[in-house]
Every structure is written in C-alpha cells, then in structure tokens.
C-alpha cells in the first residue's frame, strides 16, 4: 500500500497534474456558485478535456470540479439566500442571517475552512474503507456481478426520481440504451438501424453531456426570466479570509458535519441535502446554545459545510470499490473513469495500484486547491453570480458541442447528445430523474454479460444466482429496498 | 397544481416506444449457444418491464390531469415555451451546419442567434430605443465572435482537439 501511495504521489506531484486539478477546481467553484448549475454538469463539461490526459491527471481534474462545486454552493447561499447546490440549502439557515449582520466575509471564511476539513477527513475515510471493500468484492463471480448491478439500479432508482416506479423506468431506459449495438456474445447487431456509429453501442460521453448539461440548459432556457436578475448583496461584505481557529473552536459542529457526511456519503443516492440537514440537526442537538441556530450562528455554517464535503469522499467509496455511484455527480465521474479506460470496482485496486492511490491523493490536493482558490478569489466569485444568463447558456452549449465532437469527430454523436438532452429535460420535468439512466447505461452491459456468462457456465441453470450467498444478499437487499420504498410512498400518499 | 398534459403524454410515448422496441427485438436472429440466452432476451425483458411500469404511471398521471381544474398557464408560460423551442431549434441547426460551415462561423452564428433570441423572446429588444437596439446587437455579435475564436484557439492549439476548420 505504501508503495502504491508513493507511486500515486509521483503521479500527482507533476506540474501538469497539479494545473489540471487546479483548473478543474476553479471550474467547479464557478459552476457551484451559479444557482441551477450542478457539479454533475461541471464534470460532464470537463470530460472531453481529460481525454488525452493520463488517468490521475484526468480524474484529478474531475475530482477538483466535484470538490470545488461542493464548496462554492455556499457563496450564493450566504450572499443571496439562494443555495447554489441542493446540499447548500442548510447553509442559508445561518449563512444568510450572518451576511445580513454585515459578516458575509466571516460566513464565507468559515464555510471555506469547514469544507476543507470535511474534504480532508473524507479522503482519509475513503482511503481506509475503499481498499478492504474492494478486496472483499474480489470474491465476486458472474452471479454476484449480475446481482450487484440489479442492486445498484434499484438503489439509485429508489432515490433519484420522486417516485420509485419512475426511477425504475429511468434506470431501465438506460439498461435498454446499453443493449443498442453489437451483442457482446453472439455479435448480432441490435437496434443499430444500419448506422455505423451505433455498432459499438451508445457512446457514453454524448449521453452524459446530453443528460446532465444540455437538459439543464433546456431547463434554464424554459425558466429564463430577464426580470428576475440576481442582485448583488446589499449588505457590506467584510474581509473574507479563512477562519481556521474559529472553525476549530466549533469542533463539536465540525465533528457532527464530518461524521454525518461520512456516514451518509457511502449510502447510494442519499445525497448532500440529507447529509447537511442531518449534520445541522446533530450540531444543534449537541450545542450548548441551540436557540442561536438560525440567527447567524457560526456552528450552523461549520456543521453544514463540513458535511457537504465530507459526503463527497464517502460517495466515492462505492463508486471506486464497487462501481456503483452514490448520486448524479459520482455517476458522471464513474462515466469519466470508464472513458479514461479505468473500470471501477475491485479490479481497480488490483490492476492500477498506483493509479487508485494517485486518485485518493488527487482528491486531497483538490481540497487544498479549493481552499486556496476560494480564499484568493472570493471577491471574483461573488461577481460570477452576476454573469448574464443568456451568454452563459450559449457558452455552455458551445462547450458541449466541442466536447462531444472532439471525441472522434462524429457528427452523429451531436444528434445523440441533443436527443439525450431533450430526453433528460422531460425525465427531470416529469420526476423520473436522469441519474438512473446513466447508471443503467453503465450497469446494463455488466448485468447482461454476467447473466449470460453465468448461465453458460451453469449450463443454463438459474439457481446459482439465488443460492450463492453474496448474490442472494444483494438480491434480498434490493427486494427489501423496493418493499420499503413502496411502503413509504404508500404511507406518504395515504390521507392522515 | 398546474394542469399539465405533458405528463400523461410522456408516459404514453414511453408505452408506445417500449411496445415498438419489444416488437423490433423479436425480429432479432436467434443464435443457439448452450446455456446462453438469445440476443433478444434482454431488450425484450427490459421493454416489457418499462411497459408494465409505465402503464400505472400513465393511468395515474391521466387521472391527475383530468381531476385538476382547467386554469390559465402561469404568466410567461408562452415565453418560456418559445425560449425552450428556440434553444432546441438553434441547437439542431448548429448540429446541421457545424461541419459544413466550419467551427468558427457556425459557432459565432449560433451564439449570436442564441443571445439575440433570448433578448427578443423576453421582450428585451422591443423595450430598447433604436440606438440601444444597435448597441445590443453589436455587443451580441462581438461576444459571439470573441467566444468562437477564443474557444477555437484554446481547444485546437492548447488541447489538440481537432475542430472543423
């Protein structure tokens, strides 16, 4: 393991890699600061840029975007009372009241440092937990991989959409899209309609950019209202500088945030808003002055922001160790890993020894860059909020085009991107969610090929899929989750 | 609650698409390998599952639509639809001319049309004086040319990503 870390360190400590991580972090900060734009979109837009890069450099850049967006959602939350990302909702509880008192700089300083501590702690937890989980997963055979795919799909479908049924439909659409192209076992072309570009299947990148970037632009275009322009904070912004000592003084809130984020993070689909609300609640519960929460109280900000970034490392555990992402941003990151030629899962820790530790270290460096860039550029990022929306939307679409076209110069992928963008828009509008589609697209081939290989190996016998202990466990958990979600939905709809 | 026909319509599209996919998959050739499933098995299983799950969604959404009182769309709904269609149409047009016109001209035209389109659909242009209109159009044109050229330079020169010339 130590040699793995040393190899990883060598990969990370190269000028190109450091610049890539810094660039990714900067873009993530900008995207996270703009309400409505997401970290998933930032990662999707960066994917094409990472093509020619070595794995650690490329993934480091994407992790930088994830880390930056996770932290900068607090900027509009504190200054405008508008959360930049869903996980920053709880930041508004104390951040905005503090800004109203003329202490916006203090609130920003606390949020930056708390995010940094949360991110660093989650990297430690990631590096400790991911390898043993991956080692355990080395025992998996075809039956286990099939069951794991079904488990992953059910788990994200049950939380991504507003209804379980719609989430499942979205996941199945992704599964179906993954069957397009040449059949992996018999070589028969499926749903290719004589289109050469479809012979190798649906390209992941146009699907990712379409579902997460184009669909968001379409949503923003629908909601674009020039009369609702954001106004700069009317309150005086005091000097925004990192508040290390003050953050550490509120260690109880910091620990509540780190623990909540780390526990909620690995739960697939749980998401940042849950982690931050749990952290806020725990910090208030263990506080000596709970009545001050909601009035611009520093521990409120510290707990929420540390949870937001602690969550990211936790969410990377199932993504890297099992190949199952925790939510939308890590689903896109998973796609990024696969585009880089890295197959997430237990073999990642076996085959790319230095690479995976390089990824861990890159995440640590991304947190350091986040701290540095946020501290140096806080005044600039406040101005980012004022960027005119129409120019921004046009620019994002231009970047989407370059990204998709740049892969292999195939115009067909541009149509595919637009198609997925329109599909993603309606899936989001009608509460199906887009994350299950991507997961279906990624897990579909794993499920199908392992099911068919398993059946060949077992001479057409289905029973090993239900009798092998690990496979059975995944299927039982998936079934239980389905039942629990159905019961919860039923109770929620039943009149009191 | 807003009365939205789009919901049941989208479910209906899913139902039709899944049925069509099922039928299309049944035409796939069957190759016998011991213990293996046919290439049609997975697509048929998935399309059948989508059909089964989408049916109650369609019924529920249709019921909800019928039970929701007919009301006027919120203020600005037409503008919102126009903006959405504008972006889809411009993106489709951009895709069509991307290779034929070359990257810089197609991107500059697309960006200009996007920015001006948003200004027009939101009523921003009609509120301006003649001088203001000229100024807004010139600013949009400048933005379009600068964005297209700078992005072309960055991606072709710095990232080595080939773009249509």
From TrEMBL, chain A:
Record has Endoplasmic reticulum as a keyword: no
DUF112 domain sequence ranges: 18-439
The keyword Signal is annotated on this UniProt entry: no
Keywords from the named record: Membrane, Transmembrane, Transmembrane helix
InterPro entries referenced in this protein's UniProt entry, alphabetically: DUF112_TM
Membrane-spanning segments: 20-47, 107-130, 142-161, 167-186, 198-218, 253-280, 315-339, 359-382, 394-427, 470-490
PANTHER family from the UniProt entry: TRICARBOXYLIC TRANSPORT PROTEIN
This protein's name: Tripartite tricarboxylate transporter permease
Automatic annotation (TrEMBL), chain B:
InterPro entries named in the record: DUF1468 (IPR009936)
Domain of life: Bacteria
Official protein name in the record: Tripartite tricarboxylate transporter TctB family protein
Thylakoid keyword on record: no
Membrane-spanning residues: 41-59, 80-97, 103-125, 137-155
Keyword Cell membrane: no
Keywords: Membrane, Transmembrane, Transmembrane helix
Record domain DUF1468: where: 12-164
Pfam families: TctB (PF07331)
């Amino acid at each position: 393991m130590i040699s793995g870390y040393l190899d990883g360190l060598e990969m990370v400590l190269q000028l190109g890699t450091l610049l890539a991580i810094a660039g990714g972090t900067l873009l993530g900060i900008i995207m996270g600061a703009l309400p409505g734009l997401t970290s998933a979109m930032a990662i999707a837009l960066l994917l094409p840029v990472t093509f020619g890069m070595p794995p650690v450099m490329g993934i480091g850049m994407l992790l930088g975007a994830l880390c930056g967006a996770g932290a900068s959602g607090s900027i509009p939350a504190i200054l405008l009372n508008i959360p930049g990302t869903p996980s920053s909702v709880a930041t508004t509880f104390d951040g905005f009241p503090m800004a109203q008192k003329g202490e916006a700089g203090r609130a920003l300083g606390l949020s930056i440092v708390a995010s940094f501590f949360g991110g660093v702690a989650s990297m430690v937890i990631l590096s400790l937990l991911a390898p043993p989980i991956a080692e355990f997963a080395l025992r998996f055979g075809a039956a286990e991989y099939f069951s794991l795919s079904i488990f992953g799909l059910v788990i994200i479908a049950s939380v991504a959409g507003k209804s379980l049924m719609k989430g499942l439909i979205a996941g199945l659409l992704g599964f179906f899209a993954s069957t397009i192209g040449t059949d992996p076992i018999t070589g028969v072309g499926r749903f290719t309609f004589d289109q050469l570009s479809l012979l190798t299947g649906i390209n992941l990148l146009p699907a990712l950019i379409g579902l997460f970037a184009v669909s968001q632009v379409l949503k923003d275009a629908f909601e674009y209202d020039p009369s609702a322009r954001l106004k700069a904070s009317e309150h005086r912004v005091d000097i925004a500088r990192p508040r290390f000592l003050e953050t550490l003084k509120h260690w109880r809130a910091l620990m509540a945030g780190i623990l909540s984020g780390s526990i909620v993070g690995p739960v697939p689909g749980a998401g940042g808003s849950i982690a931050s609300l749990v952290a806020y609640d725990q910090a208030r519960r263990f506080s000596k002055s709970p009545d001050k929460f909601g009035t611009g109280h520093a521990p409120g900000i510290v707990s929420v922001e540390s949870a937001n970034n602690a969550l990211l490392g936790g969410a990377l555990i199932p993504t890297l160790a099992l190949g199952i992402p925790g939510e939308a941003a890590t689903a896109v990151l998973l796609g990024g890993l696969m585009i880089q030629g890295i197959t997430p899962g237990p073999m990642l820790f076996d085959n790319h020894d230095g690479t995976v530790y390089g990824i861990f270290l890159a995440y640590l460096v991304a947190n350091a860059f986040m701290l540095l860039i946020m501290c140096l550029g806080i005044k600039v990022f406040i101005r980012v909020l004022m960027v005119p929306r129409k120019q921004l939307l046009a620019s994002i679409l231009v970047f989407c085009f370059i990204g998709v076209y740049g892969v292999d110069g195939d115009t067909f992928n541009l149509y595919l991107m637009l198609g997925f963008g329109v599909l993603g828009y309606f899936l989001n509008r009608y509460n199906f969610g887009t994350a299950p589609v991507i997961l279906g697209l990624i897990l579909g081939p794993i499920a199908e090929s392992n099911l068919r290989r398993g059946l060949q190996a077992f001479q057409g016998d289905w029973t090993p899929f239900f009798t092998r202990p690990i496979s059975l466990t995944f299927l039982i958990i998936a079934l239980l989750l389905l039942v629990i979600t159905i019961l919860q939905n039923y109770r929620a709809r039943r009149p009191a | 609650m807003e009365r939205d026909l789009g919901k049941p319509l989208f479910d209906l599209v899913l139902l039709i698409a899944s049925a069509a996919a099922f039928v299309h998959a049944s035409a796939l050739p069957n190759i016998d390998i011991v213990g293996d499933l046919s290439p049609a098995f997975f697509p048929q299983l998935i399309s059948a599952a989508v059909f089964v799950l989408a049916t109650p969604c369609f019924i529920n959404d249709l019921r909800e639509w019928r039970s929701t009182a007919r009301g006027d769309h919120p203020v600005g709904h037409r503008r919102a639809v126009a903006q959405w269609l504008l972006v889809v149409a411009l993106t489709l047009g951009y895709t069509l001319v991307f290779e034929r016109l070359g990257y810089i001209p197609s991107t500059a035209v697309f960006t200009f049309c996007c920015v001006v389109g948003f200004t027009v659909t939101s009523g921003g242009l009609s509120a301006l004086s003649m001088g203001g209109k000229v100024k807004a159009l010139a600013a949009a044109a400048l933005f379009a040319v600068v964005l297209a050229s700078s992005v072309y330079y960055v991606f072709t020169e710095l990232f080595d990503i080939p773009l249509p010339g």
